[in-house]
Amino acid sequence: MIDVELGDLGLDEGGHLLIKRALASNASVRVVGSAITLAIDLPAWCRATGHAFADGGIITRGPHDRWRGAERAGTVDVAVDHAPARWGLAARGALVEAGAPELDLPLAAKADVWADEAARLYAQAAAAQWDPATAIPWDAPADHPIEVEDAIVQIMTYLIENETAALLVPARFLGRLHPHFREVMQLLAIQAADEARHIEVFTRRARMRRTELGLSTAGGQASLATLFDEPEFAIASFLLSVLGEGSFLSLLWFIRDHAPDPCTRELARLAAQDEARHVAFGLAHLGRHVAEDPTLRGRLAAAIERRHAALAHTSGLNAEVFDALVLLAAGSWEPAALRTGHAAVVALAGEMDTGRRTRLLRLGFDPGAAAALSALHTRNFM
Ligand SMILES: [Fe+2]
Ligand SMILES: [Fe+2]
Q: What pTM did the predictor assign?
C-alpha cells in the first residue's frame, strides 16, 4: 500500500492520472487530498473503472479492470496469418479492449493479400509523388498538325476511362481489406491517388486545345466491367495489374516515344513510372500467393479464359484508339508516314504480348500456357 498525495488537485483536473499510475504497480493505494469534491469523485471514479473503494480513500485494483481480457493485435512489425475481425481498426500491435465492434473485413488472410515488398513500394510511391501543376510543362510549345491533336484527345479520352477502372477496382478491395495489413492498405491507397493524378493530367491534356473529348465505346466499357465485377482480389489484381497495367506500361512508353509535344511526352513518362509500381505489387503479392496456394494458378488461367469468352461478342479496342495511335506515331497524313505509324502500332501489340508472357512466366506459368493466355487477353489492353 502506498499513499497517493493529490494535494488540492481534483480528479476532474487530472488527479486520476496519479492514481492510475500508482495502481499500475500497486494492488492497493491510499488517496490523500484536500479537493472539495474528492469524497464524491473518488468512489464514482472507482465504479467507472472497476476498482474497489473503501473508507479512508483506500482503492484496491479491481477484478473488473476493463483491460482484463484485452488482446494485442499482433505485433507492430509483423503481420499475422489471419487477422481476427475483433481487432477491427486497431493499430497493429495495439492492446485491444474486449468487446470492440467486429467489422466486415473479409480480406483478412495474409496469403490472399500480402507482399513483403509492399512497405518498400509504398515508401517509393510516397517519395515519387509528383505535382501535376509543376511536373508537366503545360506551356511548352506544340506545333503538330491539328489532326494529330485530335488523335491525342482520343487517346487521352481512352486513357481516362481505363484509369478510372484502375482507380475504382483496387479502391473497392481497399474497403474490404483488414487494416492489420497496413502496408498493403497504404500501398493500395497511394495507388488510387496515383490513378487520380493520371485522370487529372490526361483530362487536362485532352482539353488543352479542344473543348470536347473523344469517344467511349460499349466494347471498351464491357472489358472494364469484367474487371469491375470481379469479386476475388487475386483475380481482379491479376487481370488489372499484371495483364492490364502491364500492357499499359508498353502503351505509355509508346505515347512517350511518339508524343509530338513535351507536355504529352512528360505526362506519359510520369504515369508509366507510377504504373511500374502497380505492376510490381501485383506480381509480388500474386507470386507469393501462387507459392502458397497451388490451385491459384489454374484459377487465374480460367479467369482469363472466362473473360475472353465474355468479351468475344465485343469489338475490343476502340478502332478510333487504334487509328489515333497510328496517327500519333505517323505524325502526319503522308502515306509513307502512315505506313511507319501503322507498323509501330503493330510492334506495340507485339511488345505488349511479350511483356504479358514475361510476367506470366514470373508467376510460374510454362511458356506454352503463357503464350496462349497472353493471346486471350482483352483487345482493349486494360
Ligand atoms: Fe494509371
Ligand atoms: Fe495503375
A: 0.88
